[in-house]
């Protein structure tokens, strides 16, 4: 039997009280973390009317696919299973997969700190990425229930570094697919895993808009996540149809009112 984990949809946040958009968001996480790391960003976006789903590899916290081909097929299968093509929001390896898919049913693709391989070796990238992910998991575990936190950190420590390195080698061979929907690449200025300049070059190759935010590689979940989520929301509202612009105008008025108060 295959040892490859099957991807599953998981809830990353309660459904938005009043959904304002016909499509939902599908979050795709980085290596050595799981869908729960999207909770803050997904909650932020739920309050703005977005329904959210997360991708989980179904093998416990910190699990990841064994090869990029299998991961691509599972991502495409899950996206196609939703009632409407979703907006794919990927981070790190998840962002790289979303940009590589030729058959992804998506209204738009947002790639946050995508893994790029222009300078570092696969093993170096795996070590850096695992270090950042482990630091994030330790921080998350402190806020979680004690047993949940211990399980999360223990599984991350047990995950073999060679597995991530092998998967990164696999990702290195992937080409960037032609764009069939709008794309955004979000570049953290202080990313120590992948150089910001390399991410900007990837955005050019992918035909994506590019925006920079403060923070490091884990910006989607760690310090700076709120700025990152705000940038993603505003870009989606602008790119997914003129009928959504009224929402952006309403939020601008509300922000101005809060500043005056």
Explain the layout of strands and helices.
Blueprint: E1 8-10, E2 25-28, H1 39-46, E3 52-56, H2 68-81, E4 87-91, H3 93-100, E5 108-112, H4 122-143, H5 146-158, H6 161-172, E6 183-188, H7 196-206, E7 209-213, H8 225-239, H9 245-260
Parallel strand pairs: 2-3, 2-4, 4-5, 5-6, 6-7
Antiparallel strand pairs: 1-3
Helix pairs in contact: 1-8, 4-5, 4-6
Please tag this protein with its features.
single chain; 261 residues; alpha/beta; 7-stranded mixed beta sheet; 9 helices; 46% helix; 13% strand
Characterise the protein shown here:
By secondary structure, this protein is α/β, with parallel strands linked by helices. 46% of the residues lie in helices and 13% in strands. Strands 1-3-2-4-5-6-7 form a seven-stranded mixed sheet, with helices on both faces. Helix 1 (39-46) packs across helix 8, helix 4 (122-143) runs antiparallel to helix 5 and helix 4 crosses helix 6 (161-172). The longest helix has 22 residues, at 122-143.
What structural class do you assign from the helix and strand content? alpha/beta
Described by the principal axes of the CA atoms, the overall outline is: globular
Radius of gyration: 17 Å
Mean pLDDT across all amino acids: 74
Largest sheet: 7 strands, mixed
Order of helices and strands: EEHEHEHEHHHEHEHH
Largest sheet: spatial strand order: 1-3-2-4-5-6-7
Contiguous runs where pLDDT drops below 50 for at least 5 residues: 131-164
What percentage of residues falls in helices of 4 or more residues?
A: 40-55%
What's the tally of helices?
Answer: 9
Q: What fraction strand?
A: 5-15%
Q: How many β-strand stretches?
A: 7
Distance between the termini: 62 Å
